[in-house]
């Protein structure tokens, strides 16, 4: 299908089905505001998903390849869903995620605790998806979920509201990251991996955002310095805290006794072990 410059295809409901071998050529605009629609393997148009779902379905099989040459914006409650395992998605221009949007790759059963297999080069019996962004990625809100590496090669801008990385998804920064507002929350083995520089977003004079691991009490301190090169949100580095800071945090979050407790109560209730 060919689109002329500045032309618009708007999908507001129902289903628009494109075969795996179809392509959408030309510098137009594909706008999705509702319904469920299959993806073509090449789309040159600028894609905006503000509602509904764009899908790369199971029927395409594992190991498929998709290329977006016109950029991608997902906002409001829009969803981009990749159903087969080990799908590769390449976006050559800008990507912007905001509001309550969702990028969903396949999700498998996992333990919600980090482990040695979290290493980038760890062997994997079920290869993950690969989502590479050549242009700027603006992550202003929403969720990335499922078994995928989101690779940013140019500039990653973290700003706006809270952003979520869940269920084995990894956001991997190979270029410059600029962070303004909005926390970054990882959950169920989601991960943010910094392999280059992170700096404050231009104009930010007071930085209040942080990288949090969902379900923990202490945020960035347990994962190390998010502004350090080679930061990894699962890389628990106990050396990042001084001994005094460790004691202070332990007293605050762990060693809190019940109201009315005294040392005499402990002595009175001690029972000698029969062993």
Describe this structure in words.
The structure is a single chain. By secondary structure, this protein is mostly beta strands. 8% of the residues lie in helices and 37% in strands. The chain contains 3 helices and 23 strands. The chain has a 15-stranded parallel sheet that branches. Strands 2-4-6-9-12-15-18-21 form an 8-stranded parallel sheet, with no helix packed on it. Mean pLDDT is 78; it is low at 109-118, 215-224, 235-243 and 270-275.
Provide a compact summary of the structure:
This protein is mainly beta and 275 residues long. The protein has helices at 220-223, 243-253, 263-269, and strands at 8-16, 23-24, 29-38, 42-43, 46-56, 65-68, 72-74, 79-82, 88-91, 95-97, 102-104, 129-133, 137-139, 142-145, 148-152, 155-158, 163-166, 170-173, 176-179, 184-187, 191-194, 198-200, 211-213.
Q: What characteristic shape results from the CA principal axes?
A: globular
- What structural class is derived from the secondary structure elements? mainly beta
How much of the residues is beta strand, in percent?
A: 35-45%
Total strand segments: 23
Task: Give helix and strand order, one letter per element, not per position.
Answer: EEEEEEEEEEEEEEEEEEEEEEEHHH
Give the termini distance in whole angstroms.
80 Å
What percent of residues adopt helix (DSSP H or I)?
under 10%
Work out the helix count.
3
| Subunit arrangement of the protein | single chain
Q: Specify the biggest β-sheet.
A: 15 strands, parallel
Report low-confidence residues grouped into runs of 5 or more.
109-118, 215-224, 235-243, 270-275
Radius of gyration: 23 Å
Q: Mean pLDDT score, rounded? A: 78
């Amino acid at each position: 299908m060919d689109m002329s410059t500045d032309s618009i295809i708007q999908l507001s409901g129902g289903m628009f089905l494109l075969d795996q071998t179809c392509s959408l050529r030309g510098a137009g605009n594909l706008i999705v505001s509702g319904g469920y629609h299959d993806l073509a393997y090449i789309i040159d148009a600028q894609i905006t998903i503000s509602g509904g779902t764009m899908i790369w379905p199971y029927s395409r099989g594992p190991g498929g390849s998709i290329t977006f040459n016109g950029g991608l914006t997902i906002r409001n409650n829009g969803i981009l869903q990749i159903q087969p395992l080990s799908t590769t998605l390449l976006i050559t221009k800008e990507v912007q995620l905001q509001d309550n949007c969702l990028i969903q790759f396949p999700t498998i059963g996992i333990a919600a605790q980090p482990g040695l297999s979290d290493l980038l080069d760890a062997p994997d019996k079920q290869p993950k998806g690969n989502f590479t962004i050549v242009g700027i990625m603006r992550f202003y809100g929403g969720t990335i979920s499922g078994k995928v590496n989101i690779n940013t090669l140019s500039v990653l801008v973290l700003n706006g509201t809270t952003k979520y990385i869940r269920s084995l998804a990894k956001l991997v920064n190979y270029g410059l990251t600029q962070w303004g507002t909005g926390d970054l929350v990882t959950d169920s083995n989601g991960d943010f991996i910094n392999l280059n520089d992170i700096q404050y977003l231009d104009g930010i004079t007071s930085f209040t955002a942080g990288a949090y691991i969902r379900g923990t009490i202490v945020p960035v301190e347990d994962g190390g310095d998010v502004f350090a090169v080679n930061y990894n949100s699962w890389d628990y580095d106990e050396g990042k805290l001084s001994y005094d800071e460790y004691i202070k945090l332990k007293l605050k979050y762990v060693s809190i006794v019940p109201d009315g407790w005294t040392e005499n109560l402990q002595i009175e209730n001690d029972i000698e072990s029969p062993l």
